[in-house]
Design goal:
single chain; 301 residues; mainly alpha; MetI-like fold; two-stranded antiparallel ribbon; 2 strands
Amino acid sequence: MYHQSKRFFRFFAVLFCAVLLLAALSALPAAAAEGTEAQSGDPGFFGNVWKIITEKYPLLLRGVGETMLISLVGTVAGLLIGMLTGVLRTAPYSKNAVVRFLHKLLNRIISVYVEIFRGTPMMVQAMVIYWGYAFATGGNTLPLIPSGIFIVSINTGAYMAEIVRGGIISIDKGQFEGAASIGMSHGQTMLSVIIPQVMRNILPSVSNEFVINIKDTSVLNVIGVTELYYFAGIIKRETFKTFETYLVVCIIYFILTFSVTRLLRLAEKKLAGKDSYTIFGSQSDPEAEIKVEKEEPDYVS
């Protein structure tokens, strides 16, 4: 599987480079046709791209920093929300009638929250929350960066709630029964036995949410959050170079998401452990060893 994914990655990398090369070659005739304009002060397509990078890099770096801050904090906060709601939704009901009623009511509220935030676009959520607060307080508005983090967090939490719930359900029931047989409470079982396994199982989904959040922070510019896409608009208006500006920003987004994906894949590989290990079959006989190697699933050829 690893070698297959590596081949797919090489294929898409070559394809991406080929597309960039074709785009560059297609721009050469236009650049040649504008030679007279270049002599009068227009540096041409590649010159404009380089000029944007070298002259506007403070704005680009600030946009990258705020984009990564919002997406990282929002993903972590959303994961915590998902953990809390996932544990509550999978917890057994109490025998106490009042506690059972409150538990069911809380589960209903969580279900409504999940359905609403999974069923509406983040851009609309941002407008409703930001301007809704201003409407409720007579015109007072929230700080922009905390607003962006809050919006991304609750949006991500709705998705994480289902991801965590699915991860908990996927754990074998025998582990719950085994923990209960040695006197562990539900909270102790979740904290010490279930959650560590769930975190390992859902890490690919968490990584995917992080990458999505890096891109989706661009919609927060509708309320004025100063992330990367917001600064791209400023650079476009200052330079009057729309295509060149958004091409640079597109490449920056790709570098961010690609780097994060590689780092999280490395973390997944570390959590997966070694490909082979040894089990000592007897405490009295050091020669009694069982060597175990991981096997690929049957559907992998």
